[in-house]
User: What shape does this take?
Amino acid sequence: MSPPGRPKGEYRSAQHEGSSVSTVSQRWRRPGLTPFTWAREPLLWATVGLLVLAAGMPLLEPAFGALFPDLQRPMYRQESFLALLGAHAALVAASSAVAVVLGMAAGWFVTRPAGAEFRPLVESAVAIGQSVPPVAVLAVAAPLVGFGAWPALIALALYGLLPVLRGCIAGIESVPGVVLESASGLGMTAWQRFLRVELPLAAPVLLAGVRSSVVINIGTAAIASTVGAQTLGTPIIIGLAGFNTAYVLQGAVLVGALAVVSDMSFVRLARWAQRWRTPS
Assistant: This one.
């Protein structure tokens, strides 16, 4: 009922406008929807810190000189740390992409009725691939494909395949059978059911496997410099060969920082993927 002296339509319009404003204000009060959320985002500041550390590493030469007074050259200057960081991240991203594609394809195959009998064989083969030391893979692959990033790509892809495969299988198997039956009852094909039902519901578990694979490869990619690949392992390898602990420390700090930023990125991605499992 509208107040006395006020038209009915005008009252309804004002009431609707007030409810809309109230809804918008409630949304802004929700966690993660404040206008300055980005300023409190740890991932953003961690990424900025990593880039600043890589770009400003040469400015820390006096500090490394004080820590290692016996070294004539306490700062690695053959290449830019920022360029090495980019090359390292690109190599990890490329090898992880290959591992994700192969691992998801194998995981999808062994969870289908036609490929279930091949599951022990596939898991054993992938486990053997990870048990072989990456250095051995590099030593075998370098004469075949040449020195540089290609042998490192092969070694890292093989080394990161097992966590992706296990995460894919565990994620698909965690999808309730009732949900699959409902999807089939709606007339979905096997491929549609996988893309629209199984994959979204399996995403949190799958991302956990990808997360482990990427973080492992970030550390392992440092040894790719032994076959000529430009990574953050270059100052580490040169430092070990020349007994320069400062070089080793500079490369190791950036590798560790990159691993932390990557792990934080996957934590944020996993929260987004969890929306498929929980109602909004």
Q: What stands out?
A: Confidence is low (pLDDT under 50) at residues 9-33. The domain at 84-276 is CATH 1.10.3720.10 (MetI-like fold). The radius of gyration is 26 Å. The longest helix spans residues 190-220.
